[in-house]
Specification:
Layout (H helix, E strand, L loop, with lengths): L3 E4 L4 E3 L4 H6 L5 E2 L5 E3 L1 H9 L4 E3 L8 H11 L3 H13 L3 E4 L7 E4 L10 E9 L6 H13 L3 E7 L5 E6 L8 H4 L4
Helix pairs in contact: 2-3, 2-4
Length: 184
Amino acid sequence: MVPIAKLHGDYSIIEDKEGNSVYSQGWFGKYTNAGHLKMDPYETVLLLERKKIEVIDNNNISQLLSGVVAHFSNSIQDFLINYLLYKDLRSRGYVVKKHSINGKYFELYERGTTPKKAKHLALVVPMVEGVLFNIDDIDQIVSEAKDISKILIFAVIDSLGDVSYYSVSELEFEKLNEKLGDLN
């Protein structure tokens, strides 16, 4: 029997002890003060897709994968794009958590880690191929990663759902007028 996760607004909760098996098999979810396993939308959908959990609604009716995806897509902007990134990173063996500060990025941990030994590797920012990105937004993201001493990776998702990863570092511009002289 698979653990049952109850669907809430933007998360799901496993209330019984079966949450332990979900948590220990890949560091999914986070325990609440009440001892329940609270999972974010990406964890919920991935585990449902892998048939590791069953998801029920408030009326205790079992939900199909499409219904759970629709539920989260209605309330979370770019849910599917973020899910494709999350799924790709998890399929590569990494532990992935939503960035605690703003939830727009993912925190990447080393493969196969446990919570007590987790080494935070990078911030991963999802981007959609062909969609313009404001340079000031990129500068802010680079600064945030630098402030917390983390590697920054941009994950570009194309129209087929494939993900390409790009490492990003701070770029500083230097005024060259004095070095080059007058270019006129």
